[in-house]
Structure formats: structure tokens, C-alpha cells
Amino acid sequence: MLNYLMSNARFQAKLSRHLDASLNGLSLHELLIMNYLDKSSEKLRAAQLADLMGLTPSGITRLLLPMIKIGLIRRQADPNDARSSLIEISRAGREKLNEGRERLTYFVEDNFPLTQQKKLTSIIPTLKDLGQRL
Q1: Which residues contact 87 (CB under 8 A, 6 or more apart)?
Q2: How far is CA 96 from the centre of its chain?
Q3: Is 83 exposed, middle or buried (0-12, 13-18, 19+ CB in 10 A)?
Q4: Structural domain tally of the chain?
Q5: Do the beta carbons of residue 3 and residue 73 sit within 8 Å?
């Protein structure tokens, strides 16, 4: 198991570094946050985003603040909970997300043969199951 964890950590670090360079100013984390917001039928609390991303509340806050500042996402007070805020993707964020998705598609096509893509896709249920156990 330790070998898997070490290999996975190294793969993710390298993948993130290469993707960040390919996404035209977006980080992989920013792309994922905007993707979660875009796919959600409602505005999300920062705590929900932290859970989806596997981050701490302070970790997600550090990612969200610059995104708010440059207009990729919007934050508003939660009318049902004064301690919380609701996050949604902005129009500019959606445009940047669509561009990022397109660049991500090209990156995957250029760097992963179809057979490897299929192998990676096949382990998603196992990874989700393991993640829910933690």
C-alpha cells in the first residue's frame, strides 16, 4: 500500500505541475472548484467545496479568495446562516472554465494513450469507495 501511495503522490504532483502549465493561468484546483460550482444546481458553501476537494476549511479559503478577487467566482452571505457564505461561478469564471476544459481535453489526448485512459477510468469506483471510508 505504501508503494501505491508514494506512486500516486508523485503522479499527482507531476500531473498537477504539467496541467497548471497547460491551463493558461488556471491551476488544477481552480479548474476543479469551478467545475464543482458549474455542475451544482445551487450555490455551494465553502465547507461543501472543501469536502468535495478533500481540503480543510482554511485550505479552501486560501484558494477561493484570489478567485473571488479576480472575478472567477462570487461570494454572498448565506441568508440562512450568518456564519457562512455561498459561492457561485461567475460568467467570466464559466468562460475560463470552458477554456480550461478544452485545454484539459487536449492535454489528456496528447499525454495519455486511449488504453491508459480506459485503465484510469476503470479504477474510479475503487478510489471513490476508498475515499468514502476515510
Answers
A1: 37, 43, 44, 45, 46, 49, 64, 73, 74, 75
A2: 14
A3: exposed
A4: 1
A5: no
Is residue 24 within 8 A of residue 4, CB to CB? The reply is no
Helices (runs of H) and strands (runs of E) counted in the chain: 7, 3
Closest CA to 43 of 71, 74, 83, 66: 74
| Structural domain containing residue 91 | 18-133
Is residue 51 in a domain?
Answer: yes
Asked if 76 contacts 82 with a C-beta cutoff of 8 angstroms, the reply is no
pLDDT tens figures, 39-65: 999 999 999 999 999 999 999 999 999
pTM of the predicted protein model: 0.85
Helix 91-111 × helix 28-39 angle, to 10°: 120
pLDDT tens digits, 24-40: 889 999 999 999 999 99
